[in-house]
Design brief:
This protein has a 7-stranded mixed β-sheet, sandwiched between helices. A 5-stranded parallel β-sheet has the order 7-6-8-11-12, sandwiched between helices. It contains 18 helices and 31 strands. Helix content is about 30%, strand content about 25%. Helix 3 packs antiparallel against helix 4 and helix 17 crosses helix 18. The protein folds into 2 domains: about 400 residues, 3-Layer(aba) Sandwich (Rossmann fold), CATH 3.40.50; about 110 residues, ANL, C-terminal domain (GMP Synthetase, Chain A, domain 3, 2-Layer Sandwich). The structure holds coenzyme A (COA) and adenosine monophosphate.
C-alpha cells in the first residue's frame, strides 16, 4: 500500500476513476493473460471486471507461492482442539494435496464449469477440496455443515453438482455429528443426483459407503495422477455460495475468478494490514463467506499462513482457546464474530484465561458478521489493549464494504460504527423514495453502482432474481438489505436488516423461511417469526402462532413440534427454541404483520404504535404473552444455551 496516501485521497480516486484504480491493483495477480478490459458491462447490462483476463485462482493461491519462495512456509495450520490435532501444511505440501485431489476429481469426470458441492466440517480436506475445484476450473458450492438435509437438498438441486464431497462426521464440542446420514437424506430429498459422492472417513465415526454411489476419499487420492491448473476467464465463476434471502429459496451468490483475486489481495493489504509471510486467522467455518475469503483464498493468494480452527470459542476446552491459538501460531490478525467474544466474556468476564498466554504477536482484532455492540467492543478493547475493528460486509460483497482501513490510514473507532466506506464502495443512505439522506438520518444502506471487483456479478442461473432482489428497488444502486446512517464525520453505522433476514450467532437465516415451515404444521393458521435480541447470539428467532379454528393442542406440545420441525428442516444452528400461541397477530389495515413492533417490544425498545395498525389492543395481548413466557430481554429472558 502506498503509505503516503491518505484514506480520503485513495477513496476518492477509487470512485472517480474505478478503472484506473483497479487496474493498478490487478497487477498483483499472476495472470496467464492480462485483462483486455478493466470494467465492462456484459450483454445483459451487468457489471463485469477484468474481461479477457485469464488466470487460475488455485495457481495464484498455491503454485505461484511455491514458485516464488514460499514452498516451505506453512500455508495452512490446522488446529483442532476437538480432535486434539495440530498439523501444518507448507505451500509445497498443499500443492501436493490439492493437485492429487484435483486429479481424483478429474478421474470422476469433473472438468471446467462442472459444479461440485462440498458438505464438510472444518478440516484441511475441505480447503483442499475448494482449491482442487478451482484448479480444474470447476465451480464449488460449499454448504455449511450445520445445515439440515433439506437445506442441502435445495442447494444440490439448484447447483446440479456432478460430484459431492463430504465426510463421515463432524465434531461439535463433545458430540460426534454423523454427516453421511445427513447427506444420504439430502440425496433422497433432492431431484438431482450427482454421479458420485466422495467421503472422507474420519476415525471418530467412519461411515458405511454405498457401492455405486460413494467413493472413499483416501482411495481416490491415493490412485490419482496430479492435475495441473486449468486457465479460466476472469469472469468465469469460481464458486457459488448460497445465502438466506427472504424466502425459503436461498440465493446462489456467484463469485468470479478475476475480480475476486484482485479485491482480496487489495483487502489484505489495505484493510487488514497483513503482509505476505504473516499469520492470519479467521475463526469462522469454511461454509461461510468469511471462510471462503479469509481462511482460504485471501490469505493464501497473499502468501500468508492461514489458521484453520476446528472448535468453538468456549468449551473446546475453555474460554481461553482463542488466546491459546493466537500464542501457539503467532497470529497477527484475528477475525471473528462478536458472538464469539460474547461467549468468551460470559464464561471468563475478567479475562483470567487470557493472562496465561503470550499475545505479543496479535496486532488487530477484526469483528464482523453482525453488529458489534458497544459493550462487547469496550470489553474487548479494555481486555486486550488492541485495536478492535468492526467491519461490515455480506456474502454478496465477499469482502468488506465498510471498515477502518488499517493499511491505509487508521482512524479512531466509534463504538457501534464499522468506520468508513472501503475504496470502491460508494455507500449512500436513501429514503423510501430514493433521496439521499443527510448526516445521522437513518435509511436504507445502498451502494451506488458499479460495485467494485469481488462483489457478486449475478445469482446462479437467476439473473432476473439478481436484478429483482438487489437492483430494482433503486435504479443505479445496489440494495444491501441493511438499515443505517452515516454521521457527520463519514462514519457508517449499520443498524440491522430491514428485511426478513436475521443473524443468529453470526449465521444468516431467513425468518421468511421459518414462517413457511411453521405454516406447514397442521395446527397453524397463521404465524410470524421475528429475530429478537439475545445476549449471546445477537439475535434469536421466536415464533408466534395462531391456531386453526377448533384445533386443540397444548402450547408446550406445539412448541416442541415446531422446534423439532425447524431443526429438521433448517438445522440446529437456527437456535429456534420459543413458540407462543396467540389469539391474533397485530397487522396494519392493509394486512402486513407488524413484526418490527413485536420485536421492539420483546427487546424493550421504545416504539410508537404505527398509525396504520388495525387494532392496537392486539399488541397489548402479545405483550402479556411475551411477559408470561419470559420471551425477550424486556421480560427477563436469558440465553442459557451455551
Ligand atoms: N454442524 C452441526 N451442528 C452444528 C454446527 C455444525 N457445523 N454448528 C453448530 N451446530 C449446532 C450446535 O451443536 C448447536 O446444537 P444444539 O442446539 O443441539 O446444542 C446448534 O447448532 C447451535 O449452534 P451455535 O449457535 O453455534 O451454539 P453453540 O452453543 O454450539 O455455540 C457460540 C455458541 C457463540 C460459541 C457459537 O455460535 C460461535 O462460536 N459463534 C460464532 C459463529 C461464527 O464464527 N460465525 C461466522 C460468521 S463470521
Ligand atoms: P452474511 O451474508 O452472512 O455475511 O451476513 C451479512 C449481514 O450480516 C449484513 O447484511 C448485516 O446485516 C450483518 N453484518 C455483517 N457484518 C456486520 C457489521 N460489522 N455490523 C453490522 N451488521 C453486520
Amino acid at each position: 500500500m502506498e503509505q503516503q496516501t491518505t484514506y480520503y485521497e485513495l477513496f476518492q480516486r477509487s470512485l472517480a476513476n474505478p478503472e484506473a484504480f483497479w487496474q493498478q491493483y490487478a497487477d498483483a495477480v499472476p495472470w496467464y493473460t492480462p485483462p483486455r478490459r478493466i470494467l465492462s458491462t456484459d450483454a445483459g447490462g451487468l457489471t463485469r471486471w477484468f474481461a479477457g483476463g485469464r488466470l487460475n485462482t488455485c495457481y495464484a493461491a498455491v503454485d505461484y507461492q511455491v514458485e516464488n519462495g514460499r514452498a516451505d512456509q506453512p500455508a495452512l495450520v490446522y488446529d483442532s482442539p476437538v480432535t486434539q490435532t495440530i498439523r501444518a501444511y507448507t505451500y509445497r505440501q498443499l500443492q501436493d494435496e490439492v493437485s492429487r485431489l484435483a486429479g481424483g476429481l478429474r478421474s470422476l469426470g469433473v472438468g471446467k464449469g462442472d459444479r461440485v458441492v462440498i458438505y464438510m466440517p472444518v478440516v484441511p480436506e475441505a480447503v483442499f477440496a475448494m482449491l482442487a475445484c478451482a484448479r480444474l476450473g470447476a465451480v464449488h458450492s460449499v454448504v455449511f455443515g450445520g445445515f439440515a438435509p433439506h437445506e442441502l437438498a435445495i442447494r444440490i438441486d439448484d447447483a446440479q453438482p456432478k460430484v459431492v464431497l463430504s465426510a463421515s462426521c463432524g465434531i461439535e464440542v463433545d458430540r460426534v455429528i454423523p454427516y453421511k446420514p445427513l447427506l444420504d437424506a439430502a440425496l433422497r430429498l433432492a431431484s438431482h443426483h450427482p454421479s458420485r459422492c466422495v467421503i472422507l472417513q474420519r476415525p471418530m465415526q467412519p461411515a458405511l459407503l454405498h457401492a455405486g454411489q460413494d467413493t472413499d476419499w483416501q482411495a481416490l487420492v491415493h490412485d490419482a495422477q496430479p492435475a495441473g491448473c486449468v486457465p479460466v476467464d476472469a469472469t468465469d465463476p469460481l464458486y457459488i455460495l448460497y445465502t438466506s434471502g427472504t424466502t425459503g429459496k436461498p440465493k446462489g451468490i456467484v463469485r468470479d475468478n478475476g475480480g475476486h483475486a484482485v479485491a482480496l489481495r487489495f483487502s489484505l493489504d489495505a484493510i487488514y494490514d497483513v503482509k505476505p509471510g504473516e499469520v492470519f486467522w479467521a475463526a469462522s467455518d469454511v461454509g461461510w463467506a468469511v471462510g471462503h475469503s479469509y481462511i482460504v483464498y485471501g490469505p493464501l493468494m497473499h502468501g500468508c499462513t492461514s489458521v484453520l480452527f476446528e472448535g468453538k470459542p468456549v468449551r473446546t476446552p475453555d474460554a481461553g482457546t482463542f488466546w491459546r491459538v493466537v500464542q501457539d501460531h503467532r497470529v497477527k490478525v484475528l477475525f471473528a464474530a462478536p458472538t464469539a467474544f460474547r461467549a468468551i466474556r460470559k464464561e471468563d468476564p475478567e479475562g483470567q484465561l487470557k493472562k496465561k498466554y503470550d499475545l505479543s504477536s496479535l496486532t488487530y482484532l477484526f469483528v464482523a458478521g453482525e453488529r458489534c455492540d458497544p459493550s462487547t467492543f469496550h470489553w474487548l478493547t479494555d481486555l486486550t489493549g488492541l485495536p478492535v475493528i468492526d467491519h461490515w460486509w455480506q456474502t454478496e460483497s465477499g469482502w468488506p464494504m465498510v471498515a477502518n482501513m488499517m493499511g491505509v490510514e487508521p482512524v479512531p473507532p466509534k463504538p457501534g460504527s464499522s468506520a468508513r466506506p472501503v475504496c470502491g464502495y460508494d455507500v449512500q443512505i436513501l429514503d423510501e423514495d430514493g433521496n439521499q439522506l443527510g448526516p445521522n438520518q437513518e435509511g436504507n444502506v445502498c451502494v451506488k453502482l458499479p460495485l467494485p471487483p469481488g462483489c457478486l456479478p449475478t445469482l446462479w442461473n437467476n439473473t432476473e432474481g439478481f436484478r429483482q432482489a438487489y437492483l430494482s428497488r433503486y435504479p443505479g444502486y445496489y440494495l444491501t438489505g441493511d438499515g443505517g446512517y452515516i454521521d457527520e464525520d463519514g462514519y457508517v453505522f449499520i443498524m440491522g436488516r430491514v428485511d426478513d433476514v436475521i443473524n443468529v450467532a453470526g449465521h444468516r437465516l431467513s425468518t421468511g423461511e421459518m414462517e413457511e415451515i411453521l405454516a406447514g404444521h397442521p395446527a397453524v393458521a397463521e404465524c410470524a417469526v421475528m429475530g429478537i435480541a439475545c445476549d449471546i447470539r445477537g439475535q434469536r428467532p421466536i415464533g408466534l402462532v395462531v391456531l386453526k379454528d377448533g384445533v386443540q393442542i397444548q402450547e408446550p406440545q406445539l412448541e416442541s413440534e415446531l422446534v423439532a420441525l425447524i431443526r429438521e428442516r433448517i438445522g440446529a444452528v437456527a437456535s429456534f427454541r420459543s413458540v407462543a400461541i396467540v389469539k391474533r397477530l397485530p397487522k396494519t389495515r392493509s394486512g402486513k404483520i407488524l413484526r418490527k413492533s413485536i420485536r421492539q417490544m420483546a427487546d424493550g425498545i421504545a416504539f410508537t404504535v404505527p398509525s396504520t395498525i388495525d387494532d392496537p389492543a392486539i399488541l397489548d395481548e402479545i405483550r402479556m404473552v411475551l411477559q408470561t413466557r419470559h420471551i425477550g430481554l424486556a421480560f427477563a429472558d436469558t440465553d442459557t444455551a451455551i
